[in-house]
Protein: Two-component system sensor histidine kinase YesM
Organism: Neobacillus bataviensis
Amino acid sequence: MAKLMKLIDSPIKRKIILLALFSALIPLLVIGPFTFIYFNKVIENKVSTTINNFLNIVDWNINAFGSNVENLSNGIFLSNEIHAYLTHKNIDPMLYRLETSSLENLNNITVVNNPYIIAIYVGNDNHGFLKINRGERNLTNNIYQTIKKSNIYERLLNSQWQGEWLNGSNLELVKESNHSLLYGRNIRDLGTKEHVGVVLIVLDQSYFENMFKNSNPPGDILVLDGDKILFDSSNKRFSSSQVAKIIQGRGKSGTIKKEINGTNYFFNYHTNKKTNWDVVSIIPYKNIVHEVNQLRLITITLLVIALIVSLIIALFITRRITNQLSLLRMVTEKMEKRETVLGIHFNNEDELGEIGNRIVHLYNWNNELTKRLYKSQIKEKEAELLALQSHINPHFLYNTLNTIFWMAEKLKAKQISKIAINLSKIFKLTLNDGNHITSVKNEMEQVKSYLDIQNIRFDHKIDYTFTIDPEIMEERIIKLLLQPIVENSVYHGLEHQESGIIMIEGKKQDDGLLFKILDTGNGFNMNEVDISNKGYALKNINERLKLYYGKEYGLKIESEIGKGTTVYLKIGLKNDGILHDNN
């Protein structure tokens, strides 16, 4: 509510600008997010449909691949030569003829039509052979015994009439093949169903690379056999356990959005019914919404352009509407600072211009009357000083003091002569040839002469120090400002003490002079004494400063019982347009 009230109370110009900005911004802020969300869903569905179609094609290729391997195993399973070879128990020429016949049979079905087959093993406890299509055999003897010790043998024996896709990562029949894809089958006697031997088909995983080479798959493709990766186009960015855990227990196909290592990915997966392999497509989510991000960037750019155009138009219209109001506000600010309002004219074509011109006229008239009042008040104060000075004949005073000085010198009364000469200086500087303006240097000499006289009176119990910035010594100020304050410090603070200190500091500050007069006298309780009425001299100085220089100048007093008193005297460097009349 407070923010709303602040907006309502804002200037008219701001309201018009905000109206223009909100008119352009609110529709975009409302429509934009819903549009982005809608486009996100459309792009996600489009990508998901494309990937599903691709996975269906992959599924068909895997079915074809699986069917070819199964048909090959069926040919081996039903081969009379292979059955005869496995069931022949004697080692004689007949065994070698059967082995040769079996190998020729395998050559006919593997070399030309099935280049992805690396090797085929057929054997049992008695004998067996390893048919190599590519590479070099890794095992030479006791291959069947090695198979029996592997993790796939139990599955081979317990398999039904069909074959099994096996994970043979710990069974390497061919050197440097680094294969892990095997298809195995338990060869049985068709009549007795008894175990005759086994067949293992070693398959080259490059089949999958050839499958995806020209298909331009979307994202990274993984083919999993359980938690074992058969094919990975992602350069092992994803572990098999990670992917298997994500798709586990989610049905035969689907789409999942998941975060991995701080990055969101879009998972599409499909399980092949024949092999039970999972084909997974993994696409970074940012790639999917790339088009949406481009649209968002274009929209934001258009939004910024619209806001800039709206702001320019709003500023143009606002300037025409509020030009007179801005001018009036500038006038009121000048009036508040008591500045002279000159050279400002309102357009009289509307009522606001007429009011503005009338205000300027009344203010200038009132300002002129105020200046005249200040002049009269200053003249009144100066008249009081002149009335005091008129009672003293300067020539008589100087001659008398001069006589006292020479008489004291003749009698070698140094103290009396010093008092006479300092008193002569004080009166000379006070009268100042009838001029109310003096210099900082003269004021300090007057104070020094006064303190020298008081030290003669009080046996030098007053220590004084002056710290005055040299560059202000010739500055012109109204006279009798510092000496009355120092006299007040002596009379009220130090006269009844055994000793005391007076320190005077002076420097230029901003557009004026600042003097600090500090004494170590008795001090007083500022809560119990009305400072504005504390002494005619101080009150007179304060009023003269404010009348001559302005309200921001004058006296400030700080005091504490037992610690002394400090007076701050702020004097202007110019009279703020109030001209003094000496006549």
